[in-house]
Amino acid sequence: MFTRQFPTTRDVSFWFLFGDELLLVPLVLLPSRDSNVSSLGERRRMGRSSLFVLNICLFCTCAASPPNFVLLFADDLGFGDLGSYGHPSSLTPNLDRLAAEGLRFTDFYCTSPVCSPSRASLLTGRYQTRSGIYPGVLYPGSIGGLPLNETTIAEVLKPLGYATAAIGKWHLGFGDKGMFLPTKQGFDHFLGIPYSHDMGPCWNLTCFPPDVKCFGTCDLGTVTVPLMQNEVIKQQPVNFLKLEEAYSDFATNFITTSANKKQPFFLYYPSHHTHYPQYAGLGAAGKSLRGPYGDALLEFDNTVGNLLKTLEKTGVIKNTLVFFTSDNGPELMRMSRGGNSGCLKCGKGTTYEGGMREPAIAYWPGTIKPGVTHELASTLDILPTIAGLAGAQLPKVMLDGVDMTEILVNQGKSKRETMIFYPTDPSEMYGLFALRLGKYKAHFYTRGATHSSTTPDSDCSVFAVLKPHDPPLIFDLEADPSENYPLTLKGKPDLQNLLEKIKNVKNQFEASMVFGESQISKGTNPNLAPCCNPQCSPKPSCCHC
C-alpha cells in the first residue's frame, strides 16, 4: 500500500496491490479545514469512514508482499541495438519479449555519456556532479569512489528487509582495502569486476572460442582483471569464457533463495556486455548474425532469459518489476563492434541524443500493460520509483529523480519536464551543455568525442572541438530526433518565448547545483589496484590466483 497526499486537501490516493493488480484508489479520509462539512453527524460519519479505510489499508499492507526489483543495466548499448528498437539482425529474443509484454520507452535518458558517472546517478537518483563522480571514469588504482555518504537504491531498501545483490560491472571505485565496493554501499552480495573489464592487459584482443585470445603479453604494467565475490578476489585473471555462466548461476540462486525465504529482493545486474572488447562463451560465440558485438549481446540476452525463467519457476514473476536500460550510447569508434545509435546523432562521449538517449523497458506482468510511452524519463527516476513502490523512505538529500509509477502503471504523464546534459568533464565554469524541455532540446555547447569518431558525421569526431552557441541550437526532437535541423528563431515569437523559458530553467537548475568534490581528480595509486596476493612481488605480474 502506497499513499499520495494532495497539497490543499485531506484527500489521499492509495496504491493497492490486489493479487497481481496494482490499483490507484482515490479516497477521502477527512474534510479539509476550509471544507463545507459542518454538521457533527456528517463529521462522525466521515470519521467512521476514515477508520474503515485505515483498516483496509492495514489489511492490504499485511496481506500484500512487497514487490521485488530486478535492474538490468547494459554497457555501451546504443538506442538502435535491440531488435525491439529496430535493429534488423540482433538476436535478443528475451529483451524483445520484455518489450512486447512490457512498457517500452522512446525518450529515456542516462545522465552521462560515459560509464562511472552514469552508474552513480542510476544508484543515487542524483546527478553525478553532486556525488563527485566526474570528470571521466574511475580506474583500478583510483583513490576516490562513490562517497559512502551517498545513498544507493540498495541502502534505501535494506531497512525494509530486502535482500540485495549486485553482479557484473561495478565501476564506482575500489579504493583502499576495497572501501568503495558494493558491500560497503548496501549490497549483501557481490560477484563481479570492480571496474571496466577492458582495464587490464591486452584490452584490444578478442575472446571468443575457438580462437581464444583473452590475454597476452602487452600492457604488463597493469594487474589482470579480477573476479571478486563480496570483498575477496575469487579469480585473477578472470575466465571471460565462463564469466556470464557464473553471473547467471549466482543471480538465479539469489532469486531462488530469496523467494524460498519469502524475502523481498533487489537484484542489480550491470552487465559488461556490450562494451568493447566483447567476449562470449560457448553458448553464444559465433551464434549471432552481428559478429562479436552480436555474440556478446546474445550472451547477455541469454542471461536475461535465465532470470525470467527463475522468476517464473519460483512464482514471483507477477510480484517483480524488471527494468532494463543502458549506461550510455554506443562506442562508434569501434565501427561494427561499437554498437548502433539508430536514427540518433553521434554516440558515447557526446551530449547529442545518441550519447545519452537509451533503450529502456519496464516489465511487470499483471501490473504494467504492454505498450509504448513517449514520456520523458531518466535513470535518475529509478530510485524514487523503487522507493515509492516499496514504501521506503527517500534519502534526505537533494534528489534529481521523480517517481515514474504513474507512467508504469497507468501509462500516464511524466512528472519530469526537463533533462540536463552534462559532458564527460562537467565544470561550474561551463555548466550544462544542453537542456531538454518538453520536446525541445537546446545546445549551449557542442563537442565531439574520441568514442564517437569514425562516423561520417563530422560533428561526432574528436576533431569537432568545443563550440559555444549563443543563442543555443534548438531542435524539435519529435520532428527531428537526429538533431539535423536547428530551428530558426528569427521572426518566430513563439520560439523566442520558448528560448526565454529554457534560459530560465537553465538558470534555476544551475543555481541549485552544488558540485561535490571530484572523486576522480583525486588521482590514482597503483598500489590500490586489486591483487589476490597483496604481499607478493614483483607486482603486478605476481597477482595471479
From TrEMBL:
Cofactor: Ca(2+)
Residues passing through the membrane, by range: 51-74
Organism encoding this protein: Anabas testudineus (Climbing perch)
InterPro entries referenced in this protein's UniProt entry, alphabetically: Alkaline_phosphatase_core_sf, Sulfatase, Sulfatase_CS, Sulfatase_N
Protein's name according to its UniProt entry: Sulfatase N-terminal domain-containing protein
Keywords carried by this UniProt record: Calcium, Glycoprotein, Hydrolase, Membrane, Metal-binding, Signal, Transmembrane, Transmembrane helix
Location of the Sulfatase N-terminal domain: 67-392
KW NADP (keyword) present: no
Domain of life: Eukaryota
